[in-house]
Predict the 3D structure of the following.
Amino acid sequence: MLRVLAVASAALGPRAAGQVRTMASYQLLVPPPEVLRKPLSVPKRLLLGPGPSNLAPRVVAAGSLQMIGHMHKEMFQIMDDIKEGIKYVFQTKNPLTLAISGSGHSALEAALINVLEPGDSFLVGTNGIWGLRAADIGERIGARVHPMNKDPGGYYTLQEVEEGLAQHKPTLLFLTHGESSSGVLQPLDGYGELCHRYNCLLLVDSVASLGGTPIYMDQQEIDILYTGSQKVLNSPPGTSLISFSDKARNKIYSRKTKPCSFYLDMKWLAKFWDCGDKPRSYHHTTPVISLFSLRESLAIIAEEGLENSWKKHQEATTYLQGRLQELGLQLFVKDPALRLPTVTTVAIPAGYDWKDIVSYLMDHFNIEITGGLGPSVGKVLRIGLLGCNATRENVDLVVNALKEALQRCPRNKL
Ligand SMILES: Cc1ncc(COP(=O)(O)O)c(C=O)c1O
């Protein structure tokens, strides 16, 4: 036995004896990667997919400012400014309004894990990928999830929602305002009031719509609203914006169980973002530079005026849709009133492989458009005009590129 231990100890050397090793005795097993010797290189692209969009030049400048600490008083002021900007773009006076350190999905998770408790009934509009994602997260929480299934392109009438509310008596209803996978704009007037009559909270995803089309959180009685930084706001991906009504806040503060994530625990975040709960205290290290960018993008839209931003998107997208139809292309959403003014979906023209068209634009024009997502894959092409990208010049560029792609890409005539 002793002999076995002695052999093992000799093989391990100083580690077995717990001795301190000298620097010279360390040997790297993984060498420095060759690829990192090359300088970072990023192509210049026109991002006309459903997001991310190009950064506004002022946002790029804000993102190259000096680092400061996440707990410095100047940073707290920036966080306060961001809260005011979110209240403006959401048209809300909710005190519980803040930015999450994470992309749109983290705002969705923050909403669901804070509001739902295991066993709660959760009604979900699953007319595209975002509702499917919400349903998935609801299941992980242990909620009783009731999907209202529809094919991509569908939306929910007040009557359909009322039937779901009456049947399932949910705590929470999820709807996607701008269904970016299908290009549908879900109407929102009357839905909040209807939910409240049934003692249900209304959660709305506005990641692809906010800033591009009207939404009035307080007036439309939306209880939880979130969006992302990388669409109309032309900021880098990685932060999201969220707000909770007093009703939603009360639900969070009267929970029987702790939410299953510390990182997204709204009580902690509310303290950190100084949303009424004193004292302000550390929760996590925020992405300081991304918050500079977000503040700048909120400043830009505040200067431009929300109404002007809505008008700009509607005009550019109407122009795009007209030009696409002139090319003989079919818009996927038939009813013009239900077409999203930020992301347009085009039925894939007969005989083409959508991947050829998308690649043609990327390879020959450095323009990004995309195919469908989730249930709309193989059904649509998606073109986004988001924030500073919503211009007639960009429409002309993408339509001319598409025209050429349709002439050059292989077409199955059968
Ligand atoms: C409507 C909608 N909701 C949610 C998301 C998810 O956001 P993220 O990719 O920032 O997590 C997206 C992203 O495209 C979206 O378009």
Observations:
- Residues 28 and 106 are 37 Å apart (CA to CA).
- The chain is about 40% helix and 15% strand.
- The pocket of pyridoxal-5'-phosphate is lined by residues 50-51, 103-105, 130, 176, 178, 180, 205, 207-208, 228, 237 (CB under 6 Å).
- The longest helix spans residues 306-326.
